[in-house]
Design brief:
single chain; 3 domains; 2-enoyl-CoA Hydratase, Chain A, domain 1; alpha/beta; about 40% helix
């Protein structure tokens, strides 16, 4: 065979690999409203930057002819750039063996992840797979185990993003669950341990694939997915947006962007957002969007545990993570789900050198039998642990109220937060006046000629004496009581002061967070 013939042979092999399961299956993929693995990669990375590796990987069998082999197996792996920054990508190919994970696929993904770890670049997995390749037996399971191992070893070292763009079943779901963020596409992606048929046969429950493991089921109910989008194009666009807030690895700072928004900009209309009455709701996003540069806020877990809001923005061109109680839902109370949500986000920000800004308006932890039996003690402690563990710059602003243990949990000075502010109308106490007088003045109220009037007077007295920010300020628990319109400038100045912050921690392997 001449050299030219060898080149032609190579080109033919790569052309065959690029077609996955063939044109008919590519057409079927499109008819399902889904892109192919290569189309997804092309949409994600900067044009002309993707470099594929292991395009010719295959389980070699001497008895097979070249025409019987599926080169590249059911996954495309390689590296490219997003907004000029390097990323590593794998995209499962549903047109070939239903995207099922084989030993070859496991080896390809593992090799790609090793490159990402050694070069300090994010990993993005585009998942579209029916699960393990059953006919390969334990070899397929070994492939999953190798990937899980690398997910764990690189957790907190490089950002890991999972994009579910089709089925993700059985053992396949655990790799995304270990990664930092999961994106899903409404109507075409599902995640589940066992499908509807198995569930019905075992438990008698009837369900559908979408109800069981669809995008909104996991974005709103289970909390497994952080993001849900209507189509693949918008989903991949938001993956790129997320990357713009993140560093490439834990040894770097997030990229600085010239947003053109003055960090000392005054928030002239912010006084119209928060009602004086502590029980009246408002949307904390209205505050967040005024605080961050150009109102650009990428909310994480938007549909899950909506009594707390977390997400990414910029102040002075630098990325910040925002954690804020949301009075529009359950009064902004902390419960099991919101505690898990906040704690995980705080730990992510701390892993990747993203300062944390906390906005506090919390009445306490949610009481109730269901919460206690569900483990609110352990779950609520996760928030305490996450803030105390975090060493990034941390700034907290109490906007309206901070009561009980939730005051401590929501980024208080006692958990090592660097700078704490309060607005003049903030209430900081063990509990609100209405609850407090019912306990400490119960007999006096019962014996009064007019219990309602007496109770109202006692509540007013309690608020005047104990429910204001100046006691905390006098003890240094609050660094300053600030004019609300100066909140953005105060945060910006604090973050600038803290930019080179360092902490010496006791030597240990790792802590034991209450899981």
């Amino acid at each position: 065979m001449s050299f030219e013939e060898k080149l032609e042979y190579l080109a033919a092999l790569k052309q065959r690999a690029s077609l996955g399961g063939g044109q008919d299956r590519i057409d079927a993929q499109h008819q399902r409203g889904k892109l192919t693995a290569r189309e997804r990669i092309a949409m994600l990375v900067d044009p002309g930057t993707f470099e594929e590796i292991d395009a010719l990987a295959v389980e070699w069998n001497e008895n097979e002819s070249d025409g019987e082999r599926f080169y590249g197996d059911a996954v495309v792996t390689g590296w490219g750039r997003v907004d000029g920054r390097p990323v590593f990508v794998f995209a499962q190919d549903f047109t070939l063996f239903g995207g099922s994970l084989s030993e070859v696929m496991g080896e390809k993904i593992s090799k790609m992840m090793d490159h990402a770890a050694s070069t300090g670049a994010p990993v993005i997995g585009l998942n579209d797979s029916g699960g393990a390749r059953i006919q390969e037996g334990v070899g397929s399971l070994a492939g999953y185990g190798d990937i899980f191992f690398r997910n764990v070893r690189t957790s907190g070292v490089i950002p890991q993003i999972s994009v579910i763009m089709g089925p993700c079943a059985g053992g396949a779901v655990y790799s995304p669950a270990i990664t930092d963020f999961i994106f899903m596409v409404e109507g075409t992606s599902q995640m589940y341990i066992t499908g509807p048929d198995v569930i019905q046969s075992v438990t008698g429950e009837k369900t559908t694939f979408e109800e069981l493991g669809g995008a909104m089921s996991h974005a709103a109910k289970s909390g497994v997915a952080q993001f849900s989008f209507a189509d693949e194009e918008s989903c991949l666009a938001e993956v790129k947006r997320l990357l713009s807030f993140l560093p490439s690895n834990n040894m770097e700072d997030p990229p600085v962007v010239d947003t053109g928004d003055d960090p000392t900009r005054r928030l002239d209309d912010i006084l119209n957002i928060v009602p004086d009455e502590e029980t009246l709701p408002y949307d904390v996003r209205d505050i967040i969007e005024r605080l961050v540069d150009n109102g650009d806020f990428m909310e994480v877990h938007q549909y899950f545990a909506q009594n707390i809001v977390v997400g990414l923005g910029r102040i002075g061109g630098r990325s910040v993570g925002i954690v804020a109680n949301q009075p529009m839902y359950l009064g902004g109370v902390l419960d099991i789900d919101s505690s898990r949500k906040a704690a995980r986000f705080v730990r992510f920000c701390d892993s990747f050198n993203i300062p944390i800004v906390t906005l506090v308006d919390v009445p306490g932890y949610l009481p109730g039998i269901a919460q206690e039996y569900g483990g609110i003690i352990s779950h609520g402690a996760k928030v305490l642990y996450a803030y105390a563990e975090a060493t990034v710059p941390k700034v907290t602003v109490i906007t309206r109220k901070a009561f009980g243990g939730a005051y401590v949990a929501m980024g208080s000075k006692h958990l090592g937060v660097d700078i704490n502010y309060a607005w003049p109308g903030a209430a900081i106490a063990v509990m609100g006046g209405g609850q407090a007088v019912n306990i400490i003045n119960r007999r006096e109220i019962q014996a009064a000629a007019d219990p309602d009037a007496t109770r109202a007077d006692l509540v007013a007295d309690y608020k005047q004496r104990l429910e204001h920010p100046y006691i905390a300020a006098a003890r240094g628990y609050v660094d300053d009581v600030i004019e609300p319109r100066d909140t953005r400038a105060k945060i910006a100045h604090a973050l600038e002061m803290l930019r080179h912050k360092s902490e010496a921690l006791p030597a240990k392997k790792h802590g034991n967070i209450p899981l």
